Amino acid sequence: KLSLQMYQRSCDMFLGVPFNIVSYSLLLHMVAQVTGLKAHEFVHILGDSHIYHNHFEQVKEQLARKPLPLPRLWLNPEIKNIDDFKMEDIKLENYNFHPSIKAEMAV
User: Fold this and answer.
1) Alpha carbon of 82 to those of 21, 45, 77, 97: distances in Å?
2) What is the pTM of this model?
3) Alpha-carbon dihedral angle through residues 32, 82, 42, 71, given to the nearest 10 degrees
4) How far apart are the C-alpha atoms of 9 and 50, rounded to whole Å?
5) pLDDT truncated to tens, each residue of the chain (107 aa)?
């Protein structure tokens, strides 16, 4: 089994962290496939975790939503080299989602 651990120093919990979770979880699955291991877990350690003031209403909206069933990740099983992955080799099957929530990037 293969696990991946990441320490993130500054963590925008509304916009940044969800993107990081998806990105590094995908990386875990890709590396596991090309090394012949089973993807096990992504461990995310957060440093300064925060929600920006201009995101409070969006976070309330997100928290009020009912979670949907999780999709299934499909990677082209023929890919054996990490550099050979292309976008068409990666799919989310049965991906259901809520409408997007718009938010300005905090600076």
Assistant:
1) 19, 25, 12, 29
2) 0.91
3) -90
4) 11
5) 999 999 999 999 999 999 999 999 999 999 999 999 999 999 999 999 999 999 999 999 999 999 999 999 999 999 999 999 999 999 999 999 999 999 998 77
